[in-house]
C-alpha cells in the first residue's frame, strides 16, 4: 500500500489528484443537497407533534453530524502528520478546520432556531448543546494556533496537539443525550435498529447528510489545494503557476 | 407537495420565521465559505507572484549598482 500511496505524498501529485477529484465531489454534493433540501421542505410529511418546524432537521442533523465527522478527520490527519511527519496530512487538517467550524456554527444556530419554538428557549446549558459549543471553541483554537506561527511545521504541531486532545469531546457530544437527562431529543437515525423516523422523512435527511458530506469534501479539496500552493511557494511548479496567472 | 399554496409554504404552519431563518443562515454561511475557499488559491498565487517580482526587482537594482561601481 505504501508503494502505491507514496507518489501522492508529493505536493504536486496531491494537487493534481485533488483537481481530478474536485468536480465529482462538487457536482454530486450540490445535487444531493439540492434534491434533499427541496424534498425535505416541500414533500416530506408534516410532523404530527412539531408541525412544520421540524423541517429544520434536514439541515440541522447533517451539519451537526458533519461537525463531528470533520473533527475526527482533522484529528486523524493531525495524528498522521505528527507521527509520520507527513506535511500533506498537516495541510489537510488545516484545510478541514474552518469548514468544520462553519458546520458547528450552523448546527448551533439552526438548533437555536429549532429550540425557540419547541422548547421555548434559544439556548439552554444542556449537555448536548454545551459540548457542541465546546466543539466550536476547539475548532477556533485549532484555527488560531495554526495561524499564530510563521513556521507552519511548528504551527501544525501546536494545532495538531489541540485537535488530538479535543477528540475526547466527540464521544461526549455523541452520547450526551444518553448519559445525561437532556432537553435535546435522542438519536433519530439508528444504524443497528429501526430508525425512529418514517422513510418519507428519512430519505431526504439521508440525502442531505451525504450531500453535505460531499459538498464539504469539495470545499476541503479547494482549501487543501490553496494550502498546498501557499506552503510550496518556493517550488518551481508553483512559481510557474503563479507567474502564468499574473500574465493572464 | 405538502402545501396547498405558496403562501402556506412560506408560512410553514406558523413556523416560517424559524424555518426560513435556519435555512437562510445555513446556506448563506455555506455560500460565504465556498466563495472564500474558491478564491483562496488565487489569492495565494498572487501573493507568491508578487513576492517573486519583488525579488526580481531587488536583484535588478543590486545588479545596476554593481555595474555603476565598475
TrEMBL record, chain A:
Signal peptide: none annotated. Its main location: membrane. It is a multi-pass membrane protein. One of its GO terms (biological process) is cytochrome complex assembly. GO terms for molecular function: heme binding; heme transmembrane transporter activity. Keywords: Cell inner membrane, Cell membrane, Cytochrome c-type biogenesis, Membrane, Transmembrane, Transmembrane helix, Transport. It is found in: Cell inner membrane; Membrane. The chain crosses the membrane at residues 21-44, 56-84, 91-115, 127-147, 154-173, 202-224. One of its GO terms (cellular component) is plasma membrane. InterPro entries: Cyt_c_assembly (IPR002541), Cyt_c_biogenesis_CcmC (IPR003557), Cyt_c_biogenesis_CcsA/CcmC (IPR045062). Residues 21-184 form the Cytochrome c assembly protein domain. It comes from the Bacteria. It holds the Pfam family Cytochrom_C_asm. PANTHER family: CYTOCHROME B_B6 PROTEIN-RELATED (PTHR30071:SF1), HEME EXPORTER PROTEIN C (PTHR30071). NCBIfam families: ccmC. Required for the export of heme to the periplasm for the biogenesis of c-type cytochromes. Belongs to the CcmC/CycZ/HelC family. This is Heme exporter protein C. The gene is ccmC.
From TrEMBL, chain B:
The keyword Ribonucleoprotein does not apply. It is a single-pass membrane protein. InterPro entries: Haem_export_protD_CcmD, Heme_exporter_D. It holds the Pfam family CcmD. Keywords: Cell inner membrane, Cell membrane, Cytochrome c-type biogenesis, Membrane, Transmembrane, Transmembrane helix, Transport. Its main location: membrane. The keyword Nucleus does not apply. GO terms for biological process: cytochrome c biosynthetic process; cytochrome complex assembly; heme transport. It is found in: Cell inner membrane. One of its GO terms (cellular component) is plasma membrane. It comes from the Bacteria. The chain crosses the membrane at residues 12-36. Required for the export of heme to the periplasm for the biogenesis of c-type cytochromes. Belongs to the CcmD/CycX/HelD family. This is Heme exporter protein D. It comes from Parashewanella curva.
